Amino acid sequence: MLRRLRKAYPGTRCPLLCRTPWELMVATILSAQCTDKRVNLVTPSLFEKFPDVRACAAADPEVFARSIRSTGFYQNKTRSILGAAKALLEKFGGEVPACLEDLVTLPGVGRKTANVILGNAFGIPGISVDTHMIRINRLLGLTRNADPVKIERDLMELVPQKNWTEYSSLIIRHGRECCVARRPDCPRCPILEACPFGRARGGLSGGRRKNLKFSRRNSET
Predict the structure, then answer these.
(1) 125-221: which CATH number, 3.40.50.300, 3.40.630.10, 3.30.460.80, 1.10.1670.10?
(2) Domain 21-121, what fold?
(3) How far apart are CA 215 and CA 210, in angstroms?
(4) pLDDT tens digit string along 126-169?
(5) Residue 214: predicted pLDDT
(6) Do the Cβ atoms of 164 and 156 come closer than 8 Å?
(7) N or C: which end of the chain has fewer CB within 10 A?
(8) How far apart are CA 127 and CA 119, in angstroms?
């Protein structure tokens, strides 16, 4: 699956444009219920106005909220980001910690956001479970759970640790470009042979059925 996803989506990486762990944290919080494209339009001017943790901690909430208004839920996001900045100064000397247990103590930072930061800012593998990850991994039969934490644990048992961040990014991209919730394009799916849902929908052509039988024979030998 990893090989096929890499081939289908070459160069996949975190789509949020950031230069520091703090900028990635801010952008990830902003991305909730918002497109990455919109976040990338907002953050350049935002980081110019509020360039670091100290600037955000000292920011006027109303001014900050106006700067991120177009990302939606801007009041809640403002409280989370400014609260996280103050907590970083109080607890961690203004530095974003490279530890999941520390990250999730910050306002607005759950396990998903923490794993995004660890994987993409610090190179520490982490599985980031968003709505795409929940839906697609259930369709693939890799988990029966609906709770993100339980899904994360299930996938940790199946995906090689070194590939946790990569797998998350690839599946999320796959969910945006092919396995779209309302209209999954099963015939075009690069991992259709591994997907019980897609096979049940009749997505396999004759040639791909032959390849599936061949791959199964190989896996048994």
Answers:
(1) 1.10.1670.10
(2) Endonuclease III; domain 1 (1.10.340)
(3) 9
(4) 999 999 999 999 999 999 999 999 999 999 999 999 999 999 99
(5) 34
(6) yes
(7) C
(8) 8
pLDDT at 56 over 70: yes
Q: Which residue has the tokens 């015939």?
A: 187
Domain limits, the chain: 21-121, 125-221
Can 112 be counted among the known catalytic residues? Answer: yes
Number of H helices, E strands in the chain: 13, 0
Q: Is the pLDDT of residue 190 over 60?
A: yes
Q: Is 130 a residue of the active site?
A: yes
Cα end-to-end distance, the chain, whole Å: 19
Question: Other CB atoms closer than 10 Å to residue 189's CB: what's the count?
Answer: 22
Rounded distance between C-alpha atoms, residue 61 and residue 102, angstroms: 25
SS3 of the chain: helix, strand, coil, percent, to 5: 65, 0, 35
Residues in the chain: 221
**Catalytic residue chosen out of the listed positions 130, 185, 210, 213:** 130
Cα distances (Å, whole numbers) of residue 75 to 34, 37, 55, 65, 114: 14, 20, 18, 6, 21
| Active-site residue, from 102, 112, 154, 185 | 112
Cα–Cα distance between 221 and 211 in angstroms, integer? 16
Nearest residue to 14 via CA among 109, 99, 118, 120: 120
